[in-house]
Amino acid sequence: MTVLELRGIVKAFGDDVVLRGVDLAVDEHRVVALIGGSGSGKSTLLRCASLLETVDDGQVLLDGEDVTDPRVDADQVRRRMGVVFQAYNLFPHLSVLDNVTLAPTVVHGRSRAEAVEEARALLDRIGLADKAAEYPDRLSGGQQQRVAIVRALAVRPRVLLLDEVTSALDPELVGEVLSLVREVAAQGMTIVMATHEMGFARQVADTVAFLDGGVLLESGPPAQVLGEPQHPRTRQFLARVIDAGRL
Amino acid sequence: MALASTLLFAAVAYLAVTSSPGWPRVQATFFSPSVALESLPDIARGLLVNLQVLVVGGLLVLLVGLGTAALRTLRGPAFAPLRLLATAYVDLFRGMPLIIVLYLVGFGFPALGLQGVPTSPFVLGTAAIVLVYSAYVAEVFRAGIESVHPSQRAAARSLGLTHRQTMRIVVLPQALRTVTPALLNDFVALQKDVGLISVLGAVDAVRSAQIQVGQSFNFTPYVVAGLLFVLLAVPSARLADAVTARARRRQQSGSLL
């Protein structure tokens, strides 16, 4: 069953056309890794999928419903998706616990007690139960990003969109975040992740999609796209990544 | 050293002033202890009127200023008329001298002779002050709202919060922390500008002083009123300093909180 489908997504910022008609279908319980150089449109694609940007053309379908239709209430759609950003974007004026319980209580109308219980269980799972009362600036980057993932999971999303969630982290903190993503994927969450971690994509993703200049040049199983890339641009990109020691 | 130089400077200034040829007359007409004592009760009663304007006006300024800032930061073409209106209001009342607004509101509205329009100088004076100060405070709030990084909005919206919820729960609390020092500064300015309602005939501290000056031909009551305003302003000024210093320390420690 397809959870998230992107059809012919076109997005421009002024004269700068960032996405030139991207199609992508993500089946339930699957992990799709978006790879590509900076400026290739990965982040913009995720922002369009999460309705944080309006598309210029094309459709976003969530569980078969065209959510880019102007008659659809975008706020109602966003609450069914979870987004994690490169820079964590935790709310600095709220405690870790309040960051996690905010959407469940305010958006989903769950009782405070229920939301707190669930948030504590999630925080416990990532080993940060003792940080519940702390403010985000008391946490390391890796801890903050794991809280951000938990915050997105707390709304029980249909799909989790991860936008380069390890790119802002110190190298020694990348592992703890990736292992949480791995765990979430193993539990069956549908995930679309923009990433530069090719090794991780190879292990965890069911599909790797290569974006270049706003076009999805090729996609397929990781072994195929990363192992035997068909398109010269993909080969070029991967060669540069290997040079940088990231594969 | 700082104390010594300050004392020296004060002594020189004091000698210069007191040795001037006009000093005895100035002393008698501006610094007469007996006139000061006599005028103090009335002026203090008048100051209560100023305090009322300050409290009522200050709260209204916060509300109107915040509302105006919220309108100015609305996005989307549908809200263009509201944005334009808010911008025009801010431009108009930030540019116009308070005293002119006081005259226009204080004398213009009663002249309309409309039923239900209040004629009390207290009400009209407060209204004029609120009009002008809200325009300033709206800009302070707007700067605060815009200082909250867009990624905070994105995070809130991605969780399904509406625009309104995002503003109330995520943006405004952070904006308020940023602008508190600036708001306190405006509050200090407001504390003395409430004395301007006297031009409409409200019997406040300034007006009381004026009446007594008219009766005694001695300017000491003005000095008394002035000192009372200063006494009123000092605690808020120190509070503003303390809050600003605290905000700066937070920033320097690299923390957002």
Automatic annotation (TrEMBL), chain A:
<feature type="domain" description="ABC transporter">
    <location>
        <begin position="4"/>
        <end position="238"/>
    </location>
</feature>
<dbReference type="InterPro" id="IPR027417">
    <property type="entry name" value="P-loop_NTPase"/>
</dbReference>
<comment type="similarity">
    <text>Belongs to the ABC transporter superfamily.</text>
</comment>
<dbReference type="InterPro" id="IPR050086">
    <property type="entry name" value="MetN_ABC_transporter-like"/>
</dbReference>
<dbReference type="InterPro" id="IPR030679">
    <property type="entry name" value="ABC_ATPase_HisP-typ"/>
</dbReference>
<dbReference type="Pfam" id="PF00005">
    <property type="entry name" value="ABC_tran"/>
</dbReference>
<dbReference type="InterPro" id="IPR017871">
    <property type="entry name" value="ABC_transporter-like_CS"/>
</dbReference>
<dbReference type="GO" id="GO:0015424">
    <property type="term" value="F:ABC-type amino acid transporter activity"/>
</dbReference>
<dbReference type="InterPro" id="IPR003593">
    <property type="entry name" value="AAA+_ATPase"/>
</dbReference>
<dbReference type="GO" id="GO:0005524">
    <property type="term" value="F:ATP binding"/>
</dbReference>
<dbReference type="GO" id="GO:0005886">
    <property type="term" value="C:plasma membrane"/>
</dbReference>
<keyword id="KW-0547">Nucleotide-binding</keyword>
<keyword id="KW-0813">Transport</keyword>
<dbReference type="InterPro" id="IPR003439">
    <property type="entry name" value="ABC_transporter-like_ATP-bd"/>
</dbReference>
<keyword id="KW-1003">Cell membrane</keyword>
<keyword id="KW-0472">Membrane</keyword>
<dbReference type="GO" id="GO:0016887">
    <property type="term" value="F:ATP hydrolysis activity"/>
</dbReference>
<keyword id="KW-0067">ATP-binding</keyword>
<keyword id="KW-0029">Amino-acid transport</keyword>
<protein>
    <submittedName>
        <fullName>Amino acid ABC transporter ATP-binding protein, PAAT family (TC 3.A.1.3.-)</fullName>
    </submittedName>
</protein>
TrEMBL record, chain B:
<keyword id="KW-0813">Transport</keyword>
<protein>
    <submittedName>
        <fullName>Amino acid ABC transporter membrane protein, PAAT family</fullName>
    </submittedName>
</protein>
<dbReference type="GO" id="GO:0043190">
    <property type="term" value="C:ATP-binding cassette (ABC) transporter complex"/>
</dbReference>
<comment type="similarity">
    <text>Belongs to the binding-protein-dependent transport system permease family.</text>
</comment>
<dbReference type="InterPro" id="IPR035906">
    <property type="entry name" value="MetI-like_sf"/>
</dbReference>
<dbReference type="Pfam" id="PF00528">
    <property type="entry name" value="BPD_transp_1"/>
</dbReference>
<dbReference type="InterPro" id="IPR010065">
    <property type="entry name" value="AA_ABC_transptr_permease_3TM"/>
</dbReference>
<feature type="transmembrane region" description="Helical">
    <location>
        <begin position="52"/>
        <end position="71"/>
    </location>
</feature>
<keyword id="KW-0472">Membrane</keyword>
<keyword id="KW-0029">Amino-acid transport</keyword>
<keyword id="KW-1133">Transmembrane helix</keyword>
<dbReference type="InterPro" id="IPR043429">
    <property type="entry name" value="ArtM/GltK/GlnP/TcyL/YhdX-like"/>
</dbReference>
<feature type="transmembrane region" description="Helical">
    <location>
        <begin position="219"/>
        <end position="240"/>
    </location>
</feature>
<feature type="transmembrane region" description="Helical">
    <location>
        <begin position="92"/>
        <end position="110"/>
    </location>
</feature>
<dbReference type="GO" id="GO:0006865">
    <property type="term" value="P:amino acid transport"/>
</dbReference>
<keyword id="KW-0812">Transmembrane</keyword>
<keyword id="KW-1003">Cell membrane</keyword>
<dbReference type="GO" id="GO:0022857">
    <property type="term" value="F:transmembrane transporter activity"/>
</dbReference>
<feature type="domain" description="ABC transmembrane type-1">
    <location>
        <begin position="47"/>
        <end position="240"/>
    </location>
</feature>
<dbReference type="InterPro" id="IPR000515">
    <property type="entry name" value="MetI-like"/>
</dbReference>
